[in-house]
Amino acid sequence: MLRDGKIDRVELVACIATLLASWIFLPLISFFVRESYSAAWMGVLIGSLVVWPLTLLFMNLVRRFPGKGLVEVTLELAGPFFGRLMVLVFAFIFLDQAASSGRVFTEGIASVIMPRTPLSVHLAVFAAAGALAAYAGIEPIGRLSWLLFPFFLISLAILLVFNFNHIVSGSLFPLFGYGLKGIATSSVEMAGRFVAILALPILYPLLRKQATAMKDGFLGLIMSVIVGVLVTVEFVMVFPPGEAQRRLFPLFELALLVQLGTFFTHIEVVFVFFWFFASAIQLSWGLYIANYCFCRAFDLPGFRPVVPIMVVLFYALAFLPGNVIEAITLRVKTLLPFSFGFMAFALVLLWALYPFRRPKPAVESGVIRK
Amino acid sequence: MRNAVALLLAVAVIVVSATGCWDRTELNDEILVMAMGLDAAPEGQIAVTFVAPIARLLGGGGGGGGGEGGGGNPVHVETVVARDIAQAFQRYSTLTKRRVRFIHLGIVIIGQEMAWRGIATEIDFLSRYRELRLTTLMAVAERTAAEIASVQSIFESNPADLIEGVVRGAESKGLGVTTTLRQVLYEIGVPSVEVVLPILRIVSHQVGQDGGGGATGSPDQGSSSSHTHLRYDGAAVFKGDKMVGSLTREQNSLVAILQGRHGLGIITMPDPEVPGEDISFELTQETRRLNTGFSDGSPFVNLLIKPEGNIVEVTSDRDYMTREGMRTLEEAASRHLQEQMKAIISQTQSEWNADIIGFGRSFKKYFLTEQEWLKYSWNNVYRDVDISLDVQFHIRRVGLSWKPTNRPEAAP
Fold this sequence. Notes:
Chain A is an all-alpha fold.
């Protein structure tokens, strides 16, 4: 039963970092460069950090309800109808992030490496890997995250180091790119992607050491911010902004440039191997959390029977857009700002309801009855 | 028991599916395009030349048409005229049942006419098609790309190897720098730096009785033959996506120094004290300091270049191997390089108004937004930028000889 699973500190860090850093596989960097040009990194930095104060407020709220997480708190504060509706939106956000990542990541594989294999097959393999992990439960996903996260980081570090020789000076100027409006737009979209940090208050009851949750969550966030900013900066310096905004799959493009002499070429497949696992783990976290929200909302005793349903939903959501451009644009321009907006809305609403529906300590602890 | 069965099943599935046989591709089932030429064709069309080695003929390795059993050219060169590269690629693919692939494409050559006409619209395929790498080299043909692509050389049986080798070789010998597709793609789209592409030229050598330059054959054979070779012949200067002029090999070598991208190379200059004689230096490294800014609203560039090198040849009998002699040579080399480089910078400003050195990149930091930078219009400003250049050449070593070989022995 997933209900009984617990995750440790390191697994939480890996979970948060994987969930938050996996956006680098998507064409978001190119999108941000289109919006803010050489200042794309600022949008990434601001957008990824701006969610932290909101997370602190969520955590502050959740801690006032001992033994409960964001899902349970939402149900308690917003009531069974609106609470469930909000929790379903939380579930949708995680499922959508998994679906969009899955779709665009497999589009990248289809565009660069295996164009003859149908996308449905790519995505089916991807979904099967994610579903298997989600079915196994939170502890296996946590351990797998922790096991593979260092390899993910190492593969990225190698990629960045081997592209140093392609760096073009002056690419990060003008400092503010297309201006503050572009940076603000990118920040909101980035923040929408980082809404996944809600995993921290949602999984709060499943943490083995709740006392260090904030510290671990922050560590995961900072790791993902560093990864995101470094990859963005290097991409913009290797493909100066004018060209960076034309490149559809930034990470693949960087990998394609890596050449070690005349013998070691075409080594992008090595990177893709690690990225596939990182993406699959992000997918399994997304499926698991969506699953968790759904089952908690409707007080289902077991989670496993719902996994196949979530996988079908994931598959359907992933194929909703007709083509790769639609898939990217729909997510970036519509769903990411919506995710961030909903996060802010939920925070305000829950804190507004708190004074009226705060738990009654005496009744909760049973002191009065005794 | 259940676990054992599951394990056995898993192993069986992996053993059967992981062999890779299901999607195997034999080398003989593919055509690997290694070089591509792009020429302008009538009615707005494009002539695409594909250079692909034929795997079964490459084994014998005979020069210029040799191969297995001496039968046929080991390289297939085909020119296809079409509306764009994609259509040419499709038409070329129909010549054979083999799958045409670009994963080993090493160089793309652009014909002179197309270079003058503009290349931006023609290279979209190169940036978009998944098999093409942005590390692919680019060059300009002195006349047509088709001519370069079909060159037969005594050194290489595969023209693609030859073309790529000549371009890479020129860089390693300090004659210029290679330019990749990635650089071309971003440089044609920005005003802060312009594209410079190597120019390739076919040179004919007469061998035999009535041979011209470089005749090496036996005169009593009573006949003559000729062979061709490919030469790195300077560089094409672009403004935006259109070629606007060219640099000689020597000039291109100096441009590479100005850009801070010079490799090991030889610089030859007139002997400062003996007219008609030369001194050659082998450059080993360079330090470059670029200082830019605005003075009374006008942009200025101060460029300090400190090349270092070793003496590799002194043709005169003048003995420079003293402290004073070294200083004399350093000053003369500095002066020589400075004059040559200033002339090139002046040419880029007055003749082409094309910032091939990339000074513009350094000016972008003075603007807060891209809109302000674009409004400043570096393309138009570059012509009037005050550029000062200071070259300080340092000699580090003199080779293995104290004195010139033609200096007569004399008592001290």
